[in-house]
Amino acid sequence: MSGALQPVILSGGSGTRLWPASRESYPKQLLALFGEDSMLQSTVRRLDGLAVPQAGPIVVGNEDYRFIVAEQMRLAGIEHPRLVLEPAGRNTAPALTLAALVARSDESDPVLLVMPADHVIAEPQLFRAAVEAGLPAAQAGAFVTFGIEPTRAETGYGYIRRGGAVQRLGKGVLALQAFVEKPDAATARQYLESGEYFWNSGIFMLRASTWLRALQVLQPAMLDACSRAMEGSRQDGDFLRPDKAAFAACPSDSIDYAVMEKLHAHPGLGEAVVIPLRARWSDVGAWEALWEAADKDSDENVVRGDALLQDTRNSLVLAGSRLLVALGCEGMVVVDTPDAVLVADKGHTPQLREVVAKLKEHGREELLTHRKVYRPWGWYDSIEKGPHFQVKRIGVNPGASLSLQMHHRRAEHWVVVRGLARVTRGDDVFDLRENESVFIPLGTKHRLQNRTGDPLEIIEVQCGDYLGEDDIVRFEDVYARA
């Protein structure tokens, strides 16, 4: 299988410029901004129909949202993905190194197709064609990247300067002359008019051995730290956990800076080439970028959800769980979530970084989580809260179970509204059906389980002098949480 294609999905990052839809515990790659699939799921499905053999994806991501990633992969049809949990954020080069070491662990040497999880490619068939065009070059030991045909003088992207055709590596393969930083407006116009530049997509294809050999020469400390982290790794169900202390010593750098920009000075490591990707592409780095990438109506509006627009043009309107009316808006961004609303001029959305910094400074919970919070067993939605009480809607996935737990400072009342619940209360174990309820006194051990193949939903009413999530004492937990 040394010639097989190994997808590698880099699922780090927080996407703070897409607040309030994106939160630290639920970043942009997990959001369904284009259709029903999340951006992560779209990245997986983008390879459906590829005319070359491929293995199941390796996903490298943050431990904080590991269970959400696992569930989204399951819903995308990947039952047992290889999920590598970064102990700390170290940028894309160490993340790729972990994936390359995993891919080589069975003595094979696959071609890695490295894709960020937060990109949008509107014509996936064109992406697949570009991958197929670049595969022979990657198999031959080249460093392959993909350049996006620019459609405007964009200052928010890095650029790639192209060279001539490299016919011995395949049709459509071009020499990669240089990576160029994000330009100013005048320089971006020059790049666009010259026809010699692509946008840098951040998508790469190369053999695992090609990458690791380059690191030996260019980034030996990075390779050593990642190798030691993998030597001390442990398997935890579907999750592979590299050693935390070893990985913490790893230098932080991007694939471009760590390796790609240094290849011209080290020709023996492999040739850098670029494949043109003539598809609508966006890294959706800000709300304006989402408006640019999405399909629009006759008034150049992008609308999602239950929204009514009147005399509104060139705007992005994302409704949440209620009716949203936009009247007389021009070039606006309106994003409604259950606990926060953004109203902004489209041109000002890059300043969201400053807003997020202020939210962090003030310790606002809305920066960290949504009102609806995902857990390994399902989710809960805090639909109402006041002095000494809280009402939650709780969903438990088929076959899932909450921990056996107790609370020191609150009691709970559960009402089943959908499905069949298996309840443990003290020494009693019994089933509750729809419209049935149970009271869990303060200090009583309890557990909620869904032992069926259908979803379970309950309404939970909490009462007590403290209702924080840290008032949980766990006795048994299938997810090994503290």
Summarize the topology.
Elements: E1 5-11, H1 39-45, E2 58-62, H2 66-75, E3 82-86, H3 92-103, E4 111-116, E5 120-121, H4 124-139, E6 143-148, E7 159-165, E8 174-180, H5 185-194, E9 197-207, H6 208-218, H7 220-231, E10 234-236, E11 239-241, H8 244-248, H9 255-258, E12 272-277, E13 281-282, H10 287-293, E14 302-304, E15 307-310, E16 316-318, E17 324-327, E18 332-336, E19 341-345, H11 352-361, E20 372-375, E21 378-386, E22 389-396, E23 404-406, E24 410-418, E25 421-425, E26 428-432, E27 437-440, E28 446-449, E29 456-464, E30 473-476
Parallel strand pairs: 1-2, 1-4, 2-3, 3-11, 6-12, 14-16, 15-17, 16-18
Antiparallel strand pairs: 4-9, 5-13, 6-9, 7-8, 7-9, 8-12, 10-11, 18-19, 20-21, 21-22, 22-29, 23-30, 24-27, 24-29, 25-26, 25-28
Short description:
The chain has 482 residues and is of the alpha/beta class.
Characterise the protein shown here.
The mean pLDDT is 94. This protein has eleven helices and 30 strands. The protein is an alpha/beta fold. Helix 3 (92-103) packs across helix 7 (220-231). The two termini are 40 Å apart. The strands form seven sheets. A six-stranded antiparallel β-sheet has the order 20-21-22-29-24-27, with no helix packed on it. A five-stranded mixed β-barrel has the order 6-9-7-8-12. A four-stranded mixed β-sheet has the order 14-16-18-19, covered by helices on one side. Strand 25 and strand 26 (428-432) form a beta hairpin.
Number of helices: 11
Q: State the total count of DSSP E strands.
A: 30
N- to C-terminal distance:
40 Å
How is the main sheet built? 6 strands, antiparallel
Coarse shape: globular
Mean pLDDT: 94
Question: Structural class, from secondary structure content?
Answer: alpha/beta
What Rg do the Cα atoms give?
Answer: 25 Å
Taking strands numbered 1, 2, ... along the chain, how are they ordered across the largest sheet? 20-21-22-29-24-27
